[in-house]
Amino acid sequence: MAEALQASSVLSSLSSDGAEVELTSPVWQEIYLSGLRSWKRHLWRVWNDFLTGMVPASPLSWLFLFSAIQLACFLQLDPSLGLMEKIKELLPDWGGQHYQLRGLLAAALFASCLWGALIFTLHVALRLLLSHHGWLLEPHGSMSSPTKTWLALVRIFSGRHPRLFSFQRALPRQPVPTAQESVRKYLESVRPVLGDDAFDHAAALASDFLKLQAPRLQLYLRLKSWCASNYVSDWWEEFVYLRSRGSLMVNSTYYMMDFLYVTPTPLQSARAGNAVHALLLYRHLLNQQEIPPTLLMGMRPLCSAQFEKIFNTTRVPGVEKDYLRHLQDSRHVAVFHRGRFFRLQTHSSNGLLSPRALEQQFQEILDDPSPACPLEEHLAALTAAPRSMWAQVRESVKTHAATALEAVEGAAFFVSLDSEPAGLTREDPAASLDAYAHALLAGRGHDRWFDKSFTLIVFSNGKLGLSVEHSWADCPVSGHMWEFTLATECFQLGYAADGHCKGQPDPALPRPQRLQWDLPEQIHPSISLALRGAETLSGNIDCHVFPFSHFGKSFIKCCHVSSDSFIQLVLQLAHFRDRGQFCLTYESAMTRLFLEGRTETVRCCTREACQFVRAMEDKKTDQQCLALFRVAVDKHQALLKAAMSGQGIDRHLFALYVTSRFLHMPSPFLTQVQSQQWPLSTSQIPVQQMHLFDVHNYPDYVSAGGGFGPANDHGYGISYIFMGENMITFHISSKKSSTKTDSRRLGQHIEDALLDIASLFQAGQHLKCQFRRLGEKSGYRRGSLSSKTVDPKVPTTSTNF
Question: Whose CA is closest to 784, among 794, 774, 797?
Fold first, then answer.
């Protein structure tokens, strides 16, 4: 998502004066601290497993083993082969009357040791199984006998009902690729976008690097991989995110949309009540580890570490670097409405408040006529300011309004009740979607607390949205939460016939607490400066969203092509038509197959993709283009699988660069790599919980996905989501200040490229003609936006139409 922009700013974040001082610490010390942090997290998870009744085997399994040993002793059998007698001898002699107690204690100790050994063996066996990645190389849609055997063993060793964190101690560590292989892949990736002279220069720098710096840097990096849980993730969080000094707004945030065509209720307070209740239900399941672990392709568990900081988390600004503050619990949310802040309690002595009680409190906030206090209305603009500036001003805010600041930063999450409607409208579907995306990504610059892990945005017409800060986790984690929230608040909690939450109001419920900001007048210039900067940044972002409904995942499946690879080649063709040249392309791929893995870059602009695009532009025959298309798809799939299996390029080169800075070993090659720009940044938003939605019968009840800002001043940010089987929604962003980009223009090129590539297949040859006839009749090429209806059997009371 937004990580491409952050990744491209690593060089500047390591060039500030503060960063230079910090990197004078010895690399040995940094490796030691990485290992220490990893072991602290490991021990905390062990303790947390005990508290929640998992270690990870059920305590009942220990009781069963102890009972079996006692039964064997009753039958005068010794399953310990004499070990229990030796344990008895080591126990204190309490006299003959306690001989039976000593026997029970010896049996319990033996059972505990045997039980621990069995669990350790289970972890080791499962880790060895999960270290196998041969299944990734299987052809799409088929599975060999060895892979079936491997899958059966994984299921056997995984237990019957694994919980969210059950696999954490069994996941393998991310491997460190060889420097030679990463450099070779890097040179291969930049060859299509560099001229001969520039490529020769890059190759010469790479050759010098492999001879001079690489061996020593690799040695330290391998040492770190043995000590820390993940050799790159902690540095990635620190240097890519927390040390970045720019604004969080747009640069380190992304957004998630509501249902595209459906709004379950037009009542703002009711939608807020159900959504907050659903979010806190998710938090409860998370705390109890009752959320099933995510399984890739239904068989391979992914790391769940990022789920730990979804709630109760704030990114606190610092002069040199930020830090993430995470609380174990929080029983309130912070609410913003018309320039005022409120503390809204989410729990009573009986537990979580009902949706109707939450709606009642939100309605009291909406009905509150009191005006915003001086300096309060635009205070949140400071969270959109450069981080060093906000860190300095925050000290003054903390001194004069510590209680109010703690109420916001210590909240479970932030809620913004917007005074304007949003979402798709019949009158102007294209413009309304673009405005909806812009409101979620940037807002007005002062109505989001960008430091919070996420902000729930509820518009005046009941439409929802999410604004997420990127440093604590990646999009699939927040997307998993958002899918649960939408499904729960719409299908399980539901609404009454009048649009209110189900249930009755509680007249004894206390009113939300209005937060008081007793701020000095001296911070007014800082707020004004931050607001101007936020408004400038917001006004420069050009968002465009369009749903493509002429075909979707089902058609791509019929073509026997990976849906992600299909779209990536569509984007290459569309971008070439838009800019007339190829460029470095960033696609985010997850590395959660490994412990504490985050993401890796797939460099989609390959030689094979360029050959296919040139063939399309040169009007080669369909057979020739299709043959080149399949070669390019195979190349993209190989790169994607390499990235997922820890054999990518960019994270390894990034870690080598950070190591070189700690060792004060300048590397022109690594500096060149880290200074590269990403004119095209792309990401797919996966639908992970298909069981929550009936996408076949009700495809409208899937989130319309989300988007992020461009990673380059003259580039594009593109995300896409497959909504059901027959629709793809694209989110495009660029900067209005650029004379080279235009989000709507690129959207039209994407639409044309989708149809052109689909027409290469026999099943899609009719689509282009059908599409053109539809455009001639409607006068609007994306007229399908306004042709959707809502099935009355689905539990909804209102739509935007």
Answer: 774
Q: How many of the other CB atoms lie within 10 Å of CB of 419?
A: 12
Q: Which tokens sit at 574?
A: 């569309």
pLDDT band, residue 13 (cuts 50/70/90): low
For residue range 545-582, what is the model confidence (pLDDT) as tens digits?
999 988 989 899 888 899 999 999 999 999 999 999 99
pLDDT at 54: 52
Rounded to an integer, what distance in angstroms lies between the CA atom of residue 305 and that of residue 473?
A: 9
Cα angle for residues 537, 539, 542 (degrees, 5° grid): 100
What confidence score (pLDDT) does residue 786 get?
40
Do 243-295+305-539 and 542-645+677-774 share a fold?
Answer: yes
- Which residues on neighbouring strands pair with residue 577, listed in sequence order? none
Let me know the angle formed at the C-alpha of 542 by 541 and 546, rounded to the nearest 5 degrees. 140
**Mean per-residue pLDDT of the chain:** 87
Strands 541-548, 599-603: pairing kind: unpaired
Pick the CATH number of 243-295+305-539 from 3.30.1330.60, 3.30.559.70, 1.10.3720.10, 3.20.20.70: 3.30.559.70
* pLDDT > 80? residue 282: yes
pLDDT at 193 over 60: yes
- Smallest CA-to-CA distance from 497 within 287, 270, 316 is with 270
Q: How many CB atoms lie within 10 A of CB 623?
A: 9
Per-residue confidence band for 541, with pLDDT thresholds at 50, 70 and 90: very high
Q: Is the dihedral of CA 20, 22, 24, 26 positive or negative?
A: negative
Distance, CA of 577 to CA of 617 (rounded, Å) = 9
Residue 768: pLDDT band with limits 50, 70, 90: low
Model-level pTM? 0.90
Strand order in the sheet with 680-684: 541-548, 728-735, 716-722, 680-684, 585-590, 599-603
Catalytic residues: 470
567/753 Cα distance (integer angstroms): 10
Spatial distance between the Cα atoms of 136 and 81, rounded to a whole number of angstroms: 45
- Residue 540's CB: how many other CB atoms inside 10 A? 16
Determine the pLDDT at residue 178: 96
Tell me the domain boundaries of the chain. Answer: 57-132+142-161, 243-295+305-539, 542-645+677-774
CATH class of 542-645+677-774: alpha beta
**Is residue 465 within 8 Å of 255, Cβ to Cβ?**
yes
Whether residue 713 contacts residue 735, with contact meaning beta carbons closer than 8 Å, is answered with: yes
